[in-house]
Predict the structure.
Amino acid sequence: MIIRLKKDITLEEVSKLKSFFKDHKCQIKDASSDDVKVFGIIGDTSSIMESDVYAYKGVETITRIQVPYKKASKLIHPKPTVIDVNGVKIGGGNFVVMAGPCSVENRDQIIAVAESVKASGAQILRGGAYKPRTSPYAFQGLELEGLDLLLEAKKATGLPIVTEIQSEDSIPRFVRDVDIIQVGARNMQNFHLLKALGKIDKPILLKRGMSATVEEWLMAAEYILAGGNNKVILCERGIRTFEKYTRNTLDLSAVLAVRELSHLPVIVDPSHSSGRWSMVPDLSKAALAVGSDGLIIEVHNDPEKALCDGAQSLKPEKFDSLMTDLRKIAPIVGKKL
Ligand code: PEP
Ligand code: MN
């Protein structure tokens, strides 16, 4: 951290600032010249909030050298993290496709979709049991029954399951039965939940908040990593912009940013980013081309009658032809599918 001080800073203010950094176990190196007063702060500055430093009167500007997300950062952990989910490896050159309905609706639906996505080559089954809906009057998910049905689908197909958690109370059940615990966009900064998920040994799929910067997203991952759970998979699911034609705006550059900044695997959700099934295949191919580690795609056997997100759900036949295309593209971009 480098701090530029105001020219007229008093000796008393300088000494207050010095003791602030001493309290944070950091050393100060005075790098001032005749024209500028500059302090270099040496040591672990990750617990120092910039706003706390700006509270000192004589501080003009602060420049961070270290990233605030130490454990998520590539600087500290240069090798890509590979997460093993019941034998399915996520990260490190593999391309993993998770697919299934937005919500688990009934036994026939989830078993039929699970069997069809498996036949097409999906490696993981998705399906929401607890649904975060904008309206309290909309379908909220089958909750515990939904989890039971997901387990039946897992038994029938052998596919590991990914499903969204909404509350800390559900953690024991999810730890027992779920293979990847999804944290939805709306809960990306539910720090209490993130801290609790940091204490378990289970892969976490952390979706990007709809208005979160890449740094905020990595800081959310840091909460989980800081607790000791190093199995975090990031998911870019589109961000809110001024554009209304699509449900969100898929930020593919964020995938590249994460690959530059972090060792964590990052996948893409083309369904929630576009809100339109017709865009899902091409966005999926683009996600593979920019080097994401996989996809999470909504597939429904009867999208017109879906209880949630039918407009962005692929029919099984479309998903099947997408998988065929992805298998052709993967070796060209150096991914294993
Ligand atoms: C979902 O995956 O079903 C979902 C609700 O996604 P998001 O949290 O990205 O909106
Ligand atoms: Mn959905």
Remarks:
- Residues 102, 272, 298, 308-309 surround manganese (II) ion (ligand 2) (CB under 6 Å).
- The first strand starts at residue 2 and ends at 5.
- The radius of gyration is 23 Å.
